[in-house]
Each structure stands twice: as C-alpha cells, then as structure tokens.
Design a protein that fits this description.
Blueprint (H helix, E strand, L loop, with lengths): L1 H12 L4 E7 L2 E8 L4 E5 L15 H22 L6 H35 L12 E7 L1 H23 L51
Antiparallel strand pairs: 1-2, 1-4, 2-3
Helix pairs in contact: 1-2, 1-4, 2-3, 3-4
Length: 215
C-alpha cells in the first residue's frame, strides 16, 4: 500500500491539480491549468491573450519527496514482514511509514490551501470585471484527487505497519499442581508423589485379617 501511495503521489504531480475557466456567455474563452510543476493558460480561440504573471508553486518537489519516503517505507516494511524479523525492524517500518504518510498529508493540505487561494484570485479583472456575461469556474483537477487518494492509502499503510510493529503479548506463566520452587541448597524440585489409593472393601489392604484356625 505504501508503494501504491508513492506511485499515485508522484503521478498526481504531473496531472492538473487545479483547473479554472474564463467564460463569456457560457462559452469557455480561457482555461487555466495548474500542475505540480507548471501553470499554463490556454485560449479557446485566436486573439485572446494567454500570458500569466508570476511563478507557480513547485508542489512536485514535495510530492516527489513524499513518494521517496513512502518507497523507503515499503522496502523496510517488506524486510520487516519476514517471520525472522526483529522487533526493531518492525518498529523501523512503522516509523518510516508514519513519516511518509505525515509528509504526504501535509503536502496535500498545502495544495488544498493553494487551491482556495486561487479560487479567490481567479476572477475577471480590469475591463472584463464589469462586463456582463463574463464568469469564471474553477475546480480541483484529477491530479489533486489522485494525491488525496494516495494520502489515504499512506495513512492506512502507516496504521497497519504500526499495528504489526507491536510486540506480541507474553504467554501466561505455566500452572503446576505442586510447588516447583527449587530449595536454596540447589536440589531440584521433586515430582509430586502419587496419591494413596483407598482400601478395597473398607478393609486393610496391607494387613489382611487371618481367620484360619489356630492362628
């Protein structure tokens, strides 16, 4: 699951994270696309300016870093999944998964906050601001939802790794019908003696009574 989350996070960086459209009378005139590496504007027809100001936030670096951390967590988790793995290895797998999931979750939250900021700033300006029929529409892109899904997978992977990283409970101590404590002089504890059997027919089994004449 950590490996799948890493692949989804890196792939989402190259897909649209945020998409906006400038419409006139319901028809799209300009389309704005923001990925983890670039910000581009595409005109629907000729004669429409498509220049953009400023540099986009390079979220791709953060998503690539989160993918690398989750890849390392997957490798450590694969090694810790063996039966002969030590508790330290399982703890390392849980720790690496938690760090990768936390880093990816923070990056996804940051992208969401950037999208909220773009939603507030993506609107008609200048002459188009007071023109009737000019509207804007924006939404999260497929890349953002892929990154959000990767975050959920990473959190689940970290939870499973943390659960398997716990030590198994110690078995209960054995119970005895006798005191197994060794005396202080070093003699081993003796097994309990068999219980004596009750006499047969209520008589004395060891000293039977003789009824022969002359006895």
């Amino acid at each position: 699951m950590a490996l799948l989350a890493a692949a989804a996070a890196v792939t989402g960086a190259f897909l649209p994270l945020f998409v906006g459209e400038l419409r006139f009378d319901g028809e799209t005139q300009l389309k704005l696309t923001v990925t983890g590496w670039d910000l581009s504007a595409e005109a629907a027809g000729p004669g429409i300016p498509t220049s953009t100001a400023g540099e986009p936030v390079r979220n791709g670096w953060a998503l690539a870093g989160a993918g690398l951390l989750l890849l390392i967590a997957a490798v450590i988790g694969l090694a810790a999944a063996r039966r002969a793995s030590s508790p330290g290895g399982k703890f390392a797998a849980a720790l690496a998964s938690g760090i990768g999931a936390g880093f990816l979750a923070a990056t996804t939250l940051s992208i969401g906050l950037q999208a909220i900021s773009l939603h507030g700033s993506f609107r008609p300006a200048g002459i188009a601001e007071g023109t009737d029929g000019v509207t804007t529409a924006d939404s999260f892109g497929v890349g953002f939802w892929l990154v959000a899904g990767a975050t959920v997978l990473a959190i689940v992977a970290a939870t499973l790794a943390a659960g398997r990283g716990k030590r198994a409970p110690a078995p209960p101590p054995p119970t005895y019908d006798y005191d197994p404590v060794t005396p202080r002089y070093g003699f081993p504890a003796q097994q309990p003696l068999p219980r004596p059997q009750p006499p047969v027919n209520g008589g004395d089994a060891l000293n039977p009574r003789r009824d022969q004449p002359g006895s």
